[in-house]
Amino acid sequence: MGDTKPLGHRSETATGNTHIIPAAHGHAFVVKKGDHFRIVDLYGEQVVDFAAWATRPKNFGYSVDFTEKLSMAYTRYHLSGATPAVGEYLWTNKDEPILQIVADTVKVHDMTFMSCFPEMYTKKGIQGHRSCATNMAEVMLPYGMGSYLEVTDPFNIFQNTPNYSLKPLGSSKPGDYIEFKAMKDCVCAASCCPYDLDLFNGGKVTDVAVVTGIKS
Ligand SMILES: [Zn+2]
């Protein structure tokens, strides 16, 4: 038996299935109830926008239920705030837990801001900039999503924006991670935030990792 800890903090060895999300891109992945997975900041100060939708059994597979999704409003209601602790849940708009936070080396995240979106960049005079909204729509396209306007309000992992402030405070260090347990079958979308203005994301957008198949 070797070190069986999944990719995570500093010197831990990678096990499970590690998917590297290239800087400023997205990734979608399916998890079953009871599965554990991690979002890992490989280089530090990189925000990851995260969303999830419930899936339903269908024939021998599943279909995505776009009507039931991770909801930051429902989650804030249950938390009586916007700061989830280890052991607490993220909720859907059907008022059911979809994910539980089971480990968190950072404990600083945001659930008040929307994803960055194309018009945010065009209004700043930047054409064709990648965005979290379009990243998530891009990776959710094979699951049936049509437009980035269908992307729900995200859980902004590693985003340090207390009291709705927008300053490049940063929160995570290289190797930091948050680990979730799925409370229901779902498909998750994660976007390595491409926002490279005003020194956000450490001033340089960098790769992050998703580790699935973690043995709890
Ligand atoms: Zn973004």
UniProtKB/TrEMBL annotation:
Residues 20-187 form the DUF1989 domain. Pfam families: DUF1989 (PF09347). It comes from the Eukaryota. InterPro entries: DUF1989. This is DUF1989 domain-containing protein.
